[in-house]
Q: What sequence folds into this?
């Protein structure tokens, strides 16, 4: 079986992993009285320091990193990402996706969908020049990832404009040391373990409100509005509890020892992870603060532009 353009799907896999299968909420008006902030925090430990940068893995062409993030990149001796983005493009990884994404012979996705969702996913396929039954061969987690990719791509959200892609490519060009919190295979294993019920719910929500949700996230991220971003993502704890625990709570706890190790060193580290990992009581900012580190969200600079 030949899967659709792998590079495009790999982008969506990273997006899904970071945002725990988006749940759409109504867009709230931004708080005009709040001092602008960036989605960047400076963490001062006993010996060293690091910067935490919240990434949106897919953005529009006009969305830019903050000047605080450019400055943190310039100051730091190494850059850390969730996983090595180059791994997603390897033949071994592609073969594993091929193996895990397919339903067993005789099974179809449409048999598990309600009539409204079944028709909506056919519309998405046809709009993208695909056969109407394209998604029928895929397991729910992959169908949700692929459909979400097509929906967001049509609205201009592309991995090539994402924060981690920009700084990953720049660090590679400039020879800056890179480290990773986990492997792509670990992320793929998490996706493969998403309960079908939650993957199908994610698919329904993406088909209904995915673009509006992504725009709301981007707006909150651009203004450094942590409270709004947390409100937009925290409902997953109730609606998608297993995915929320596995994708966010457990991964954050697994990453903490590595972050604390870097804080014992005298050099400076920039850590770029999905923005959802930084907010709320399960976020890395909260955990590092509770462990006695001085954690400060950086103020907005004069604007957002490429240096």
A:
């Amino acid at each position: 079986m030949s899967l659709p353009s792998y590079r495009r799907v790999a982008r969506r896999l990273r997006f899904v992993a970071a945002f725990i299968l988006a749940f759409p909420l109504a867009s709230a008006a931004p708080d005009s009285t709040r001092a602008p902030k960036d989605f960047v925090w400076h963490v001062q430990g006993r010996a060293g320091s690091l910067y935490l940068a919240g990434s949106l893995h897919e953005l529009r062409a006009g969305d830019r990193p903050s000047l605080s993030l450019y400055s943190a990149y310039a100051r730091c001796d190494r850059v850390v990402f969730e996983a090595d983005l180059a791994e997603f493009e390897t033949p071994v990884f592609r073969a594993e996706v091929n193996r895990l994404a397919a339903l067993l012979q005789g099974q179809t996705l449409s048999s598990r969908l309600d009539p409204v969702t079944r028709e909506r996913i056919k519309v998405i396929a046809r709009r993208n020049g695909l056969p109407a039954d394209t998604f029928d061969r895929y397991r729910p987690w992959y169908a949700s990832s692929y459909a979400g990719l097509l929906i967001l791509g049509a609205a201009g959200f592309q991995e090539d404009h994402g924060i981690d892609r920009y700084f990953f490519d720049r660090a590679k060009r400039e020879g800056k040391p890179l480290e990773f919190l986990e492997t792509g295979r670990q992320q793929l294993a998490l996706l493969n373990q998403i309960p079908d019920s939650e993957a199908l719910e994610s698919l329904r929500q993406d088909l209904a409100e995915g673009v509006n949700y992504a725009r709301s996230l981007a707006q909150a991220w651009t203004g450094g509005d942590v409270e709004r971003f947390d409100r937009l993502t925290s409902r997953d704890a109730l609606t998608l509890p297993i995915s929320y625990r596995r994708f966010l709570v457990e991964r954050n706890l697994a990453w903490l020892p590595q972050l604390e190790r870097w804080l014992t060193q005298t050099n400076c580290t920039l850590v770029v992870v999905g923005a959802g990992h930084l907010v709320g009581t399960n976020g890395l900012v909260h955990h590092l603060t509770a462990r006695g580190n001085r954690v400060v969200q950086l103020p907005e600079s004069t604007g957002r532009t490429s240096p």
Notes: The two ends are 45 Å apart (CA to CA). Residues 6-25+35-88+158-193+209-299 form one domain. The chain is about 50% helix and 10% strand. The chain has a mean pLDDT of 85.
